[in-house]
Amino acid sequence: MNNQFIYFKNRLDSHSKKSMEDISAKIEKAKTAQSKLLSLPKEGLSEIPNEVFELTHLTNLNLRGNKIEYISAEFSKLQNLKVLYLDGNQIQYIDPKFFDLQNIEVLNLDGNQINFLPKEIENLKKLKRLYISENRLKILPKSIGKLITLEHLFGHGNLISELPQEIGLLTSLKHLNFFNNEIKHLDIDLSKLESLEYLQLGFNKISKISPSIGNLKDLERLSFFDNQLSELPNEISRLEKLKLLNVSYNKLKTLRLDLDSMKNLAELHIFKNDIASFSSLDIPILCSRPPYFSSRYRLLIDQNQEKQLEEVRELIETHKIGVVDLETKKMPERHYKQIPHELSDKYGLIDPRMERFYKRIREQRKNL
User: Fold this and answer.
1) What is the chain's mean pLDDT, rounded?
2) Is the distance from CB of 105 to CB of 81 less than 8 angstroms?
3) How many CB atoms lie within 10 A of CB 43?
4) Average pLDDT rounded to a whole number, residues 73-80
5) According to DSSP H, which parts of the chain are helical?
6) In angstroms, how far is CA 141 from the centroid of its own chain?
7) Which of 47, 99, 208, 332 could disulfide-link 322, Cβ–Cβ 3.0 to 4.6 Å?
8) ∠ Cα 335 321 224 (to 5°)
9) What's the pTM value of the predicted model, to 2 decimals?
C-alpha cells in the first residue's frame, strides 16, 4: 500500500475519531446538565447517535448540515421537543412514527431529498412553523389541512403542481410561500385564511386565481411574479391592507385595480406584461402615497411601458416610478433584494449596487 495513502488514511481516521469524541462529549454534557438545547450542526453525521434519543428533556435540537438520510421512529421518545432543525441533510425517508412529537412547534426540513410526506404529519397538533423548501415534493398530503396552529408554511423550490384544497383550512396561517414550483392554478377556497399576511407564489405556472383571494383581509404582500396570468380577478381590489403587489413577468393585457378600495397599496410591480392601456390605473394617486418599507418607488415598469406613460414623466424623473431596463437587465436600486436569486439568475437581472461595488474593487486592484 502506498505510504502517502496510509498517511492520509490515518489522518482521516484520526479526524473522524476526534470528531466522534467531540460529539459524544457534547451529548454527555447535555445529559449531565439536563440542558434543553443540543446543537450538532455540520458534524458529518450520517446517522443520529442513539444517545441523543435518551435526552428526553431536550426542547431544542439542531442537526442541520449533516448527512442524515433517514428519520427514525426513535424521535418519538423526545416528547418535550419544541424546535427541530434537520435542514441541509440528505433525508429521503421519514418514519411515520416521527410525527408523534406532540409538542413540536418549529420543524425545519429544508434542503433535503424528501419526495413524500406521510399523512401522519397531521399529528403535529402544536406546529407553528413548517419548512419543507428545496426538496423533491410533487404533492402535499391532504392531512396538512389539520395543522390548525400552523402560522408559517414554506415550500419553495419543489415540484408541486397543485396545492391541496385543505390548505384553505389553515386558519392560523400568516405566511405561505410556494414560489418556484409547478403550480398551474390557484383554485383553493381561501376564504378562511383571514390571518394570512404574506402570499408568495412567484415563479410558477399559474394561469388562474380563485376569486376567494379577495377575502384575505389581512394580506399585506402578494407576489405572482413570473406566472401565466392573463388577467387578475376583480376581487383583488378588496384587499384593503395590501401594501405590495408583484405581478411582473406575466401575460396581463389589462390592469384594473380600485385604488380607492386598496387604500394601503404603496408598491406595484407590473413590468414585462402585455398591458395595452393604463387608463384604468390611477398612477398619480399611487405615487402620492408614502413608500412601502425602504423603497422609494411606488410603481415598477419596463422601458416599453414607459413609452405609454409620457403623461407621468415627472413621476419617473422624481423616482416615484422605477423603470426596469429589459435590454440591459438592470433593476432600479432598492428593488433587486426583493427578487429571489433563482429569478435574478434566470433573467440575468443586474444589481446596480453590486455593479458599482465590483467596479470599485477593480479600480482598487489597478492602483495596487
Assistant:
1) 88
2) no
3) 16
4) 97
5) 3-32, 283-287, 303-306, 313-317, 341-347, 352-366
6) 19
7) 332
8) 55
9) 0.87
